């Protein structure tokens, strides 16, 4: 199947309803494309073809019944194939989190976000590659090997939801779930030229999302466009009694038909246009901001003065939470065990052999930041500065409706480019971390290409629970431009080989 045959979410659902295509045929085509491309992309860790075809069959039966009796209510996403990041549990399907410590772990329960998609009729084609426990910005920290960027196979797809982003960019599936703790939906979306929606903390239940940084973790959507992300969002969002931080707020179904940005106040924070940013990224983002101005938006220069502290604050808080969350992987409760003479040796062997270098680094950083005598100086201090960063956003949103900024300082970098230096890798996150620390939503989408032919993207950030404003603003841009419709060339030659 050719890339252009994999339609948008909107077109897929229309075609299914009209009976132009069956979910079975569509799913089969997605699975064939997955199989043809996974060798070079390595976007999927665990394809689930039998399960997907069973779900598709079931969807087709429901469509047939509905054709007999149109009063039957159809699930809203019936028959739509999607991919799921491998940190979200799906009952009966291997969930590795990109780690050898969960090799062959089969969860007996399903994440609420996935459960809701299944109830909405989605067909799940498989689990996508991720940095180990979502710790990374390139998918190179996956214990099962990196994912490759569909635009250039020598480049990273970003991370940690790199598998989901690559799967959507390569048009294997119309949409996928990812997670964003410090940029992991937005940055891979940016590197792969797709649209990535990071939801407000508390918008989507974290139940069944394997915890990394519990006060930062969010579930989000990767899709071809803001319109498609808007179609998925209402079906994963909402209160869930199994996650006390999920909010009991109505989930607006986002109406995009008259998405105008006339009068929209777009803030441009000066702290996001700094030395060291790749000139083509800055130019691309500035050109997109200019496009907003021409569409009637009002551009306002703003300041988020504590932006520079987001990186050190995040790299204390996230590892601190991770060190506690990952204590449960001890060889007893989950996954495989490495034997030892005594119990503590078994712990030591299991964790020593089965966690990767980056995960161990974070556990050590976090344990140190939380330890007696250092807690106040590191973790305590970081929490205080986090509050200041949150206040920066609150005051900015008194003046503007959305904030426009680059997603990352560069376009996709080469596999191995930062592998010698954790700090260089962490610096890739400077523009995405603040939204997570403040808990606000963000959306990344392509606004051009660099001279290497790699996507350049920008992000819009909005006030808490204003995903609708972001989706509308991104949709307005996508109505006026066609960057989001570009498809990586050359993959189909691989497909045909
Ligand atoms: N790159 C960041 C990290 O390594 C963010 C990852 C994420 O959002 N899961 O922690």
UniProtKB/TrEMBL annotation:
The keyword Mitochondrion does not apply. The gene is gatA. GO terms for cellular component: glutamyl-tRNA(Gln) amidotransferase complex. Allows the formation of correctly charged Gln-tRNA(Gln) through the transamidation of misacylated Glu-tRNA(Gln) in organisms which lack glutaminyl-tRNA synthetase. The reaction takes place in the presence of glutamine and ATP through an activated gamma-phospho-Glu-tRNA(Gln). It catalyses: L-glutamyl-tRNA(Gln) + L-glutamine + ATP + H2O = L-glutaminyl-tRNA(Gln) + L-glutamate + ADP + phosphate + H(+). Residues 25-471 form the Amidase domain. GO terms for biological process: translation. Belongs to the amidase family. GatA subfamily. Its EC number is 6.3.5.7. Heterotrimer of A, B and C subunits. It comes from Ornatilinea apprima. The keyword Cell membrane does not apply. This is Glutamyl-tRNA(Gln) amidotransferase subunit A. PANTHER family: GLUTAMYL-TRNA(GLN) AMIDOTRANSFERASE SUBUNIT A, TRANSAMIDASE. InterPro entries: Amidase (IPR000120), Amidase_CS (IPR020556), Amidase_dom (IPR023631), AS_sf (IPR036928), GatA (IPR004412).
């Amino acid at each position: 199947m050719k890339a252009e045959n994999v339609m948008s979410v909107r077109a897929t659902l229309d075609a299914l309803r009209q009976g132009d295509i069956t979910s079975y045929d569509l799913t089969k085509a997605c699975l064939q494309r997955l199989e043809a491309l996974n060798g070079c992309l390595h976007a999927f860790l665990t394809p689930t073809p039998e399960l997907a075809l069973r779900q598709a069959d079931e969807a087709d039966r429901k469509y047939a019944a509905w054709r007999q009796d149109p009063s039957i209510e159809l699930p809203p996403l019936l028959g739509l194939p999607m991919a799921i990041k491998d940190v979200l549990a799906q009952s009966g399907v291997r969930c590795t989190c990109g780690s050898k410590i969960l090799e062959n772990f089969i969860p007996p329960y399903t994440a609420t976000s996935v459960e809701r998609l299944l109830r909405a009729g989605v067909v799940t084609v498989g689990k996508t590659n991720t940095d180990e426990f979502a710790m990374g910005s390139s998918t190179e920290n996956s214990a099962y090997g990196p994912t490759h960027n569909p635009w250039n196979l020598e480049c990273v797809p970003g991370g940690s939801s790199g598998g989901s982003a690559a799967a959507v960019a390569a048009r294997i599936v119309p949409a996928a779930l990812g997670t964003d703790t410090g940029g992991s939906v937005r940055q891979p979306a940016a590197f792969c030229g797709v649209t990535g929606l990071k939801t407000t903390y508390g918008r989507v239940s974290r139940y069944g999302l394997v915890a990394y940084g519990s006060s930062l973790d969010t579930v989000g959507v990767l899709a071809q466009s803001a319109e498609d992300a808007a179609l998925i969002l209402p079906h994963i969002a909402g209160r869930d009694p199994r996650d006390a931080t999920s909010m009991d707020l109505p989930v607006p179904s986002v109406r995009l038909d008259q998405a105008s940005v006339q009068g929209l106040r777009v803030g441009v924070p000066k702290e996001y246009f700094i030395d060291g940013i790749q000139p083509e990224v800055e130019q691309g983002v500035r050109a997109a901001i200019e496009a907003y101005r021409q569409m009637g938006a009002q551009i306002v220069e703003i300041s988020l003065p504590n932006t520079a502290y987001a990186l050190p604050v995040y790299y204390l808080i996230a590892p601190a939470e991770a060190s506690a969350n990952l204590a449960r992987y001890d060889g007893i409760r989950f996954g495989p065990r490495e034997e030892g003479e005594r119990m503590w040796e078994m712990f030591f062997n299991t964790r020593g052999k089965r966690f990767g270098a980056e995960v161990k680094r974070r556990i050590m950083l976090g344990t140190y930041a939380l330890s007696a005598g250092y807690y106040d100086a590191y973790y305590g201090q970081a929490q205080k500065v986090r509050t200041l960063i949150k206040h920066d956003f609150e005051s900015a949103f008194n003046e503007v409706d959305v904030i426009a900024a680059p997603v990352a300082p560069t376009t996709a970098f080469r596999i191995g480019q930062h592998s010698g230096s954790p700090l260089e890798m962490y610096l890739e996150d400077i523009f995405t971390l603040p939204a997570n620390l403040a808990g606000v939503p963000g959306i990344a989408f392509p606004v051009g290409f660099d001279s290497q032919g790699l996507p350049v993207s920008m992000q819009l950030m909005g006030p808490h629970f204003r995903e609708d404003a972001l989706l509308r603003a991104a949709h307005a841009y996508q109505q006026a431009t066609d960057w989001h419709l570009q498809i990586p060339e050359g993959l189909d030659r691989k497909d045909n080989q």
